[in-house]
# Entry
Amino acid sequence: MNNNDIFKKLRVALMLRDDQIEEILMLVDFRMSKGELGNFFRSEDHPKFMECGDQVLRNFLNGLVIYLRGTKESPKIPADVIAKHRIEAKPKEFTKSEGAPKKDFKPKTDFKKKPGSNPKFAPKKQTKKIEIVEKVQYKNGKNTKG
# Structure
């Protein structure tokens, strides 16, 4: 298991977004852009994949301690911080009352229908199903002489 795998697993387990990871690294004065962070989470065969070095992972872990526990002057409860992430990470459930009201579809009645004018919707003729494979009776290796 390399540093990239550890970084990915921590990101998923703690439900962190790229901007939150960037904020965590800023706590220990280690600046990285979101693009550079995204390169760590790519697959190994991707052309922009970048190996996560020990220094990046060390700074992330040190920043994560400060992010979750806080400092001596202002301590935090890690469970509260993680619970806040879970609430933010949940996708919203949409109801019918949300969003723009949908208009009901009303077809125009100006045109006249011609029955059977469209060959696409004409009733299909039933064709006889041709059996490709012959029916075979299996004897399962038993010789039955009658």
